[in-house]
Give the backbone structure.
Amino acid sequence: MSAICIANNKGGVGKTTTAVNLAAGLARLNQRVLVVDLDGQANATYALTGRVHPVPSIYDVLVGTRKLDTIIWQTNEENVWIVPADGRLQQADVEMAARPGREFRLARALAGVDYDYIIIDTPPSLGVLTQNALAASTDVLVPIALTEFSVIGMDKLEATIEDLRDGLNLPDLEILGVFATFYEDTTTSRETWGLLEKKFEGRLLETRIPKNLDLEKAHRANESVLSFAPNSSGGQGYTHLAREVKKLASAH
Amino acid sequence: MSAICIANNKGGVGKTTTAVNLAAGLARLNQRVLVVDLDGQANATYALTGRVHPVPSIYDVLVGTRKLDTIIWQTNEENVWIVPADGRLQQADVEMAARPGREFRLARALAGVDYDYIIIDTPPSLGVLTQNALAASTDVLVPIALTEFSVIGMDKLEATIEDLRDGLNLPDLEILGVFATFYEDTTTSRETWGLLEKKFEGRLLETRIPKNLDLEKAHRANESVLSFAPNSSGGQGYTHLAREVKKLASAH
Ligand SMILES: Nc1ncnc2c1ncn2[C@@H]1O[C@H](COP(=O)(O)OP(=O)(O)OP(=O)(O)O)[C@@H](O)[C@H]1O
Ligand SMILES: Nc1ncnc2c1ncn2[C@@H]1O[C@H](COP(=O)(O)OP(=O)(O)OP(=O)(O)O)[C@@H](O)[C@H]1O
Ligand SMILES: [Mg+2]
Ligand SMILES: [Mg+2]
């Protein structure tokens, strides 16, 4: 079983869009996939089910005593299940701050769970919730938008992930890869892609997710892009990503 | 003196782009402006100065005992100063969690400071750092990207800002307004704008910031768009926003 954390503290780089569509892509490769929404915005929850801030949610598992298996839902995508989030997670960092073992609540809660893939969507932050995601994962997947802020933030992000891996004692946690999102045929985009190629040689996935409005429209329709517009450039991109991730994840 | 917090827990909606360019716009209206970067990504710091994660920073004021006036810098924009951020802020929520009065550290640190406008850039979160920003502000300005997730998150965001205003006892804190960012001439964008008009009647600013690559390029050049490309649609948008904000802020 692979547990993949989608992480990047930069906002709006496509974490949720990746969590939702990678899950759907893997499901179409005959995998049973559980998405865990760890973000107080609950965007993945909404994108896959149409529900807005449902209670109970993963908050009650992390901060309360609810058992995770009591809040696993079906989604609009076949073979994709979800553990939903809600807005109370926005205060979870502070509420969990004083608890011993606070970074391992999710890992413990997921202990009995049996899926081929667990995909964890995280908030744009490196706080306690993202640390829970990392501590519960076998792999980290990092979407990088082709913008100045996103690229310039990568050194710090990588260093922090490595610090957390050491600090939380997670020697087997690997960066599965980084990959470009919002790719378009402009000079700026192509130049930035070139920078990424140099910087992340060996860890940069082949798949580039293009800027494609169908990805936004699919969220609106509460479907994955593979249901909504499979032949769109966004649909093809995530089909490709699922294949590439499956290959890499089963390799280690 | 107006202290304006740029807030939205959704990532990538244009908070930093607004903090930087609104500050520059107000400076061109003969105002002395201080930008406070409260985000561990330190994007506003980089955009206005080219510096990456400088130490010392606002972190040392909030978590340590440094005096704020010792870290006020000039920026590449005339009449815009900045209090920089650095990556250690990513852990500030947890580190400050146990301190009494943790939400008021910034307000106290800003007590002696004299500018026409203070513009506070916040992380995509509603935790302790954003609470510090709200507690130090006279006004909140909310950029809303014209996307499903951004619009759907608005109810929760508004409710949370009001809860925080009550919880932190900040009766004079006002939502100065909400305004659209990433506006473009597409059906989806225009429909979403229509939704915003209905939902936020009376609080929706006239200014709409269009999708414009010059805004991204200006960050790359470590200049405001008003220096980099004043006549671009992004430049005109932020010139307009500065005028509209100045009018509203001086009215109350
Ligand atoms: N390749 C793409 N092309 C066009 N739009 C996209 C693409 N990827 C994502 N989007 C849209 O961009 C916005 C940001 O994407 P998304 O919410 O997935 O990012 P995120 O990293 O999860 O954001 P946050 O940091 O707030 O959690 C959304 O409105 C989404 O629909
Ligand atoms: N109107 C616009 N047109 C085109 N690009 C824009 C526009 N506004 C912002 N951008 C770009 O979009 C990206 C996100 O903007 P920005 O970083 O200002 O958002 P943010 O809300 O501060 O993000 P975060 O939540 O991560 O702090 C940046 O790369 C920025 O250059
Ligand atoms: Mg997200
Ligand atoms: Mg920002």
